[in-house]
Amino acid sequence: MSLPNLLQGRLRLPVIAAPMFIVSNPDLVIAQCTAGVVGSFPALNARPEHVLEEWLERITTELDAARAAEPEAPIAPFAVNQIVHASNQRLAHDVELCARYRVPIQITSLRAPDAVVEAAHSYGGLVFHDVTNIKHAKRALQAGVDGLILVCHGAGGHAGRLSPFALIPEIRAFYDGPIIASGSIASGGAVLAAQAVGADLAYIGTRFIATEEANAAPEYKAALLAASGEDIVYTDLFTGVHGNYLRSSIEAAGLDPDNLPAGDKNTMDFGSGGASSAKAWRDIWGAGQGVGQIGDVQSAAQVVDALAAEYASARQRLAA
Known about the structure:
There is one protein chain. By secondary structure, the chain is α/β, with parallel strands linked by helices. The chain is built from eleven helices and eleven strands. The chain has helices at about 25-35, 50-70, 90-100, 115-120, 135-140, 165-170, 190-195, 205-210, 220-225, 245-250, 300-320; strands at about 15, 40, 80-85, 105-110, 125-130, 145-150, 155-160, 180, 200-205, 230-235, 245. It has an eight-stranded parallel β-sheet. Helix 7 (about 190-195) crosses helix 11 (about 300-320). It starts with 14 loop residues before the first strand and ends with a helix. The model has no long low-confidence stretch (mean pLDDT about 95).
């Protein structure tokens, strides 16, 4: 297992906070990074496109100031998520802007990120790519990515079908670089479990939706607190790609979560309603199967504090 030099000594916990459509914003990213975990956001959250430069300027400036004020503190780098798909007409613009601001990490999704890798490597940045299976992992490695994010069953939003206990060892059989594990990771104990099975870092999204800084409606946060793992529905209806969503939001849109039609991947448009009039992420809320472990709405710093305490407790239990 390995950790890139960029991350060594700069993390309080081996965690990357997942980029969440609509939800992730500069307030959340800065709070996550200053708390000691990698904060991230989708480039498409900055709308219209000129807003992306404002976000990059603010995040870069505030994190630099935080490091200058506390040079010994583990203040993490940040990441920007790029959707590598024909429906993302902003991709070239956003990648160029990230290169100009020397964004430390770019997280790529959906298709092999050859052009993003070339741009990021031109200034020393890293690219971590989302994969759900062996085929996609090997294609991403051909593109030269610096790490693989294994989006396993139970992860919030778009997710694969395999358990992390299946996918991580299979990829470890041919890849010894950085692996970031995703899928129902909502506690410090789960972070340690991900490391135990072969991952270097854990990818956590849903738990950070229920934070003060997150750009999620109060009703969304309340629905997370009321939900359990059994309230997560896995479907491809809303974007054409399978993902996990809150049952209550599907019902609120007038749909039957137990009788959803199949989606159409050929009509996929990121952020669209796919094969449904209800719009993914805005009307239909993503969440992972670890949702039942969220007890209240806290600040991002409090969430990281809790994760750190849970992580330390899990290590002590195993040592005993």
